[in-house]
Design goal:
Blueprint lengths: L3 H29 L19 E7 L3 E8 L11 E4 L6 H5 L3 H5 L4 E4 L16 H14 L5 E6 L2 H11 L4 E7 L9 H8 L1 H10 L2 H12 L22 H10 L2 H13 L13 E6 L7 H10 L4 E5 L5 H4 L1 H17 L2
Parallel strand pairs: 3-4, 3-5, 5-6, 6-7, 7-8
Antiparallel strand pairs: 1-2, 2-4
């Protein structure tokens, strides 16, 4: 006869098995149903102008997926430019409207971060410092020398950590739509702590549901925004929905969730004021994800930082690409003039 304690353990195990089985059955039913065609979806073609894709093996760090634009044919007047994408995105999803313009200035390297896009998958927890180490290893492996590091949103903390931990690979920094810390209030702090909700949702929802929701968002018929990458204002600049969904779903749910928690823990206010490289800050004036006040606070902490304003939300790199590219070019020129 099992003891009372053993009966409790057996009952708990049985309940877990039943719950797991029921959950699996629900997911199978949701994802196994025949998908209906969605009006307005384009074919699975990526946006035009993406640079060459490379898989680069980095010793002890894995194989990194990288976009590599060779730069101007006549030779570059600027150091290499390294583009670091934001949370939930991939390099392509973040920079597809910016590659070509940046490639007119210098060689451009844009990696997918670990756990995002085609980035490496590690057994260890996602840490922003580890991503900064990945980027430093990539720059050294490619023998780029000190480079201009452009960090968007989550790429901003990675850029700041890269300078702090590996100053030898940093010629200057451009920080876009980002901050020195990401706890914008009590509600924001709670959101970062509950990233597991996002993790569960991405594993349960069928892809067709996400595609339908993004089409509705692009047409202005969705009450809440799923991603800042597309909006009704983008019109023809919006990437093809199937491609967009594919890029979003490339990310590992566990890593992406942990990356959100990492952003909630990040705080460079105690040390970013020591920045000794030329720096520029691009602020998006109508940003609903990273408040304008937090962006300006970061800029105020960095000595002699050039501040450029771009009218737009967190999707300004794509939705307002002309102005955003002009701000990037101005920022790179500012840094190069001071090297």
């Amino acid at each position: 006869m099992p003891t009372a304690r053993q009966r409790i353990v057996l009952a708990a195990l049985a309940g877990g098995v039943v719950g797991t089985t029921a959950g699996s059955a629900l997911v199978t039913w949701l994802t196994g149903r025949s998908r209906q065609p969605i009006d307005g979806l384009d074919t699975l073609n990526p946006p035009p102008g993406l640079p060459e894709a490379k898989i680069i093996p980095i010793p002890d760090r894995g194989e990194m997926f990288v976009r590599d634009h060779p730069g101007p044919a006549h030779g570059a007047d600027h150091p290499p430019i390294v583009l670091l994408h934001g949370w939930l995105a991939s390099a392509d999803l973040n920079w597809f409207t910016n590659y070509e313009e940046m490639g007119k200035l210098a060689r451009v390297i844009a990696p997918d971060h670990r756990g995002h896009g085609r980035g490496t998958r590690h057994s260890s927890p996602f840490r922003l410092a580890d991503v900064a180490d990945d980027v430093a290893a990539l720059i050294r492996h490619l023998d780029l020398g000190p480079s201009i590091i452009v960090g968007f949103s989550m790429g901003g903390p990675i850029t700041q950590l890269l300078w702090q931990r590996h100053p030898d690979v940093v010629a200057g920094v451009v920080l876009c739509s980002t901050a020195s810390e990401f706890r914008f209030g009590p509600l924001s702090g709670a959101q970062w702590r509950w990233m597991s909700v996002y993790q569960v949702g991405t594993r349960l929802l069928p892809r067709s549901w996400l595609e339908w929701a993004l089409v509705a968002q692009l047409r202005g018929k969705l009450p809440v925004s799923i991603t800042p990458v597309i909006s009704p204002e983008m019109e023809d600049a919006a990437p093809p929905i199937p491609w967009l969904v594919g890029e979003i779903e490339r990310g590992d749910a566990e890593d992406v969730s942990e990356a959100g928690r990492e952003l909630g823990r990040f705080d460079s206010r105690g040390w970013i004021g020591g920045m000794d490289r030329p720096a520029a800050v691009i602020v998006t004036t109508r940003d609903r994800l990273v408040p304008l006040t937090s962006q300006l606070e970061l800029a105020a902490r960095i000595p002699h930082a050039l501040i450029t304003e771009v009218e737009g939300d967190h999707d300004a790199a794509a939705a307002n690409a002309t102005e955003f590219n002009a701000a990037l070019q101005q920022s790179v020129a500012y840094i190069t003039d001071r090297l």
